[in-house]
Amino acid sequence: MLMDRRFFLTTLALTPLFAKESVGNSNDIYLSYGEFATLKSLNSRLKRLRRFIGYANFNIVSFHNALYYARNYSKIGTFTKPELALIEKLFYEDQAQYGFFGAKTCSNMNNTISRKDIVKIPHTGHFLFKGKPQEDYAKIKRDIGDVLILTSGVRNVVKQLSLFANKIYNCGGNITKATIQIAPPAYSYHTISDFDVGRVDWGYRNFTADFAKTKEFEKMRKLDYIGMRYKKNNSDGVRFEPWHVEVI
């Protein structure tokens, strides 16, 4: 059951729980009230898991291992049945109904990333897949300089789920708006190849359109061995992401 928009907006105005990002278009689809309450607890549990296993490990942990940690360590707490049902919804639902038309990159919620297939990039807390992703990053550093740094690499399902759930939460349960800003957990190219880069010491601005105004981005556009996954007005329905490197 989807949330009545008028009643939702009334609640939004009265409740500080909802973030500023939440108001969207009249046709946007929201989680139900019950689902939003579940999302809140799920979001908190995933953050506890990240703190417990560490930021880098959280990027690659499998869903199976996440369940194990949650079940066996009280600092995290076992995932509830409503949380598991919501996870399945966010992973398996057809995202086209929310305006997301990207290709599915992962069909297995229990996807496992082997450590022999990845390499940790020093001073970043992130991993890259060996082979072309690692080679491309090394070339970018060579061609543009050390001012450029890896800001996000390999993301397994749990990490992408966490980012997506947090975005939906910050959008006040507006799934439509969230899918424009971050790929759902089964649709991220970070799970198979792509990575993000940014300027050293730029922080959050690396994940805004401001990055497209930098000299580093201008140099990146001229490199013929990489692409830009999400250009302006792309057919996937995703916002412009100049920082997102497409491995081609």
Q: Any key phrases for this structure?
A:
10% strand; disordered N terminus; 9 helices; alpha+beta; Muramoyl-pentapeptide Carboxypeptidase, domain 2
Strand content: 5-15%
Globular, elongated, flat, extended or rod-shaped: what is the shape? globular
The main sheet comes to:
4 strands, antiparallel
Strand order of the largest sheet: 3-4-6-5
- Report the CATH topology name: Muramoyl-pentapeptide Carboxypeptidase, domain 2
Assign the CATH class.
Answer: Alpha Beta
| Radius of gyration, whole Å | 18 Å
Work out the helix count: 9
- Gap between N and C termini: 41 Å
* Pattern of helices and strands: HHHHHEEHEHHEHEE
- Name the structural class: alpha+beta
Q: Which stretches are low in confidence, meaning pLDDT under 50 for 5 or more residues running?
A: 1-20
CATH architecture: 2-Layer Sandwich
Describe what you observe in this structure.
The protein is an alpha+beta fold and 248 residues long. It has one domain: Muramoyl-pentapeptide Carboxypeptidase, domain 2 (2-Layer Sandwich), CATH 3.30.1380.10. The protein is 40% helix and 10% strand. The protein contains nine helices and six strands, in the order αααααββαβααβαββ. The protein has helices spanning 5-14, 33-53, 55-60, 63-72, 81-92, 132-144, 157-170, 175-181, 215-221; strands at 118-121, 126-129, 148-152, 195-199, 226-228, 244-247. The protein has a four-stranded antiparallel sheet with strand order 3-4-6-5. The chain has a two-stranded antiparallel ribbon with strand order 1-2. A hairpin with a 4-residue loop joins β1 (118-121) and β2. α2 (33-53) packs across α7. The chain is globular, with a radius of gyration of 18 Å.
